[in-house]
Amino acid sequence: TCIEYVETYCIADDGFEFFGGSVNTKYLISAFNDDDAFDTDEGYNGKNQFWFAIQEPGKRDEGSEQNGQPNSPDVVVDGATPLSAYEVYNATFIGAGTTGSGNDALNIRRHNFCKWYNGIFTEFQGKRVDIDATSQPDIRNNIFFNFVGGNGTGYGGAFAPASVNPNVDPLLNSVSRTQDLGLDPLVDAASPAFSGYRTTPVNGFYSAAPYKGAFGTGRNWAQDWTALSNDRFLTPNANVSQAPGYPELDMTVTSNADGSTATVAWTSVPSLQYKVQSTTDFTAWTDETAWINGTGASVSQNISVPATRKVFRVVAR
Q1: Residue spans of the chain under pLDDT 50
Q2: I need a surface site. Which of 63, 85, 132, 202 has the fewest CB within 10 A?
Q3: HEC string of the chain?
Q4: 215: nearest Cα among 230, 228, 202, 204
Q5: What is the pLDDT of residue 242?
Q6: pLDDT of residue 248
Q7: Quick one: pLDDT at residue 25?
């Protein structure tokens, strides 16, 4: 099972919740959801990298609420399997802001042995880390900054040592929770995120990421395919033009029966030209067509699809 490049947006409950299992994930976004940004339960033990969360001051709960075993009145059974021992590398969590109360960054509950490395956690109303007495997580090589509620019951202790989880400004480019193109979770080139990080394991799953947080200084992988991008929260990438006033595209993508080709279709505008582009990993976009003149009618293009996947976009000028 491949779970990558998934966004949950304005959900009335948790953004992502794992009920046991061992699925691995990459490039997950939990944005403006009413409960926890990420929640784990019942012995979840997968591998994860590049998680991004942002919360708003109204409806929200924890940045991450993590149960190894079910809550009281269920009795904790020491050593019961499956053991909750999942890993999260390179998370960036932006909390609900610095006014109000509650809203902890990492709330680790009941017999949890999770591992959080190379994360950035900032602007939470509550505590940095709360750890249940039955849990023994490993929280290292992270940055915590701008918390109202203090340390909690774990930060600075054996499971989240302050010496390797500094309270320092990560120098995110900008934080905004309004539709003003002002949310840029990438870090400045002078950020402390580029020092003290933990080298990711070489095991065929993790990507090399010599920094803390979900983003470095290059391209924002959340651009172009997310509601955060479409609804004008994210600051555009430096090499991508963002022109206010362009008509919204009603693009659709449908695949043929065997999945070898996809039809990309949209309604064109006579004054514009269009080009279909694709990517397989969001590091670069490839032209699938030349520029196509808009006519006011529907346009469709048949594009070949590899055995893995392609993501499409239509660029207008």
Answers
A1: 239-244
A2: 202
A3: CCEEEEEEECCCCCCEEEECCCCCEEEEEEECCCCCCEEEECCCCCEEEEEEEECCCCCCCCCEEEECCCCCCCCCCCCCCCCECCEEEEEEEECCCCCCCCCCCEEEECCECCEEECCEEEEECCCCEEECCCCCCEEECCEEEEECCCCCCCECCCCECHHHCCECCCCEEECCCCCCCCEEEEECCCCHHHCCCCCCCCCCCCCCCCCCCCCCCCCCCCCCCCHHHHCCCECCCCCCCCCCCCCCCCCEEEECCCCCEEEEEEECCCCCEEEEEEECCCCCCEECCCCEECCCCEEEEEEECCCCCCEEEEEEC
A4: 228
A5: 44
A6: 64
A7: 98
Asked if residue 176 lies in contact with residue 182, where contact means CB atoms within 8 angstroms, the answer is yes
pLDDT for position 273 = 93
| Cα–Cα dist 254/264, whole Å | 7
Amino acid sitting at position 316: A
Q: Token pair for residue 293?
A: 């003149």
